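Input (Probable dual-specificity RNA methyltransferase RlmN):
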Amino acid sequence: MSSLPLVFDAPRRGTPPRHLADVDPADRAAVAQELGVPRFRLDQLARHWFGRLTDDLDTMSDLGGDVREKLRPLLPPLVTPLTEKACDGGATRKTLWRGHDGVLAESVLMRYPDRATVCISSQAGCGMACPFCATGQGGLQRNLSTAEIVDQVRRAAAQARDGVLDEPTRLSNVVFMGMGEPLANYKRVVAAVRRITEPAPDGLGISARGVTVSTVGLVPAIDRLREEGIPVTLAISLHCPDDELRDTLVPVNNRWKVAEVLDAGRRYATTTGRRVSIEYALIRDVNDQPWRADMLAKVLRQHIGTSRVHVNLIPLNPTPGSEWDASPKPVEEEFVRRVRAAGVACTVRDTRGQEIDAACGQLAASHPG
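Output:
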């Protein structure tokens, strides 16, 4: 087995301060005692932060001034917006965030006719080293905390509510497809999913069926996730059906091969009842050949089954100076036709934000310093 540039524990930089979103609701009584306030005061704070989507203590009029000061340590500033860019007539908005220790992460808020979705980061950088991904080429700085992850969603929900996407709407979908490998930050990501899906005052109240967690194929973590009892959608970033090419495109394939990853996907679908999404970035003259479309459909039928899987083709959003480019439209259309002809559901992801560095990691890579 070849050596891997694979990192499961991020290098430790400045550990983010404890935040309300890091505290499990079952632990609120102990935290309240530590802060010298009654337990219900933490529930009041949580109703503001999770329910009203505000982090401004000074507007929480049901909390007296002395109580607010005692609670202030639970709402430390975690991330600061450095850059915000909008496009698609205001329907897409990308934000570059800086953590308290200077690390960068990105999120993208998007409005569609039937929903509003935020794509969030789970790590600052990524250690999976996929060569066509801008984030992967930048390496891993550290894991994001539970609160840093959840705060991306809370801020996006507030922005959507307040009409930043050209008109007010409700945030309904969350996808862990921004910077980082979510299952390499397993404990914090699962805690964040619980905060996102639990109703206020314990969470943001977004349906678990509206949450998608992606992975390049960390098989033990997929099996662990299926036992959590949270019916989120699992998205597997496969990108090619054959081990020879995937060893290069997705280096983790050197550890867990295509068949192992898809078998884990089948187990997840069987346990949760949720259809697995197969993410496939279509790259010109690399993984877009007709025979690979046929092979993709074949391995999915063999290992997961047509009723439990859906292929999501992603036109590559090329990064400046990269050798990788998107497949021509006729090639894309033929790829879709072949996968569908084999009985496997296949759609092409709506491309958003090419003019605002919307490919994962582009905005961070272009930021000075």
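Residues 1-12 have pLDDT under 50 and may be disordered.
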